[in-house]
Amino acid sequence: MIVGIGVDVVEVARLGAALERTPALRRRLFTDAEGALPLESLAARFAAKEAVAKALGAPPGLRHLDAEVVRGGHGRPELRITGRAAEVARDLGVRRWHVSLSHDGGMAVAYVLAES
């Protein structure tokens, strides 16, 4: 059963400008592994983090670092959920996450599905 769904779109150049203007932002938004990726990949991962929050109903206390996009089998993106996001997901009965990322034409998008 679907518990929640989230989608987010990010303009790659806008994220790049924000990271350049505020270098500490990278550490607040991305794990060390994520932070080393190219800008387009960062934008898709930021969109995924926002989509996770939407799938959970945007509860207070979530941090961007509570959701990490990792490479799973065959290079498929997977979500690693920790902290407050994991607590909320557990309370909602989320047992499985699905994520799809894409970037093209200066835009990045992520779809997230939370399943019980």
From TrEMBL:
Gene3D superfamilies: 4'-phosphopantetheinyl transferase domain. Its cofactor is Mg(2+). It is found in: Cytoplasm. The keyword Metal-binding applies. Keywords: Cytoplasm, Fatty acid biosynthesis, Fatty acid metabolism, Lipid biosynthesis, Lipid metabolism, Magnesium, Metal-binding, Transferase. InterPro entries: 4-PPantetheinyl_Trfase_dom, 4-PPantetheinyl_Trfase_dom_sf, ACPS, Ppantetheine-prot_Trfase_dom. GO terms for cellular component: cytoplasm. One of its GO terms (biological process) is fatty acid biosynthetic process. Residues 4-89 form the 4'-phosphopantetheinyl transferase domain. It holds the Pfam family ACPS. Belongs to the P-Pant transferase superfamily. AcpS family. Transfers the 4'-phosphopantetheine moiety from coenzyme A to a Ser of acyl-carrier-protein. This is Holo-[acyl-carrier-protein] synthase. It comes from Microbispora bryophytorum. The gene is acpS.
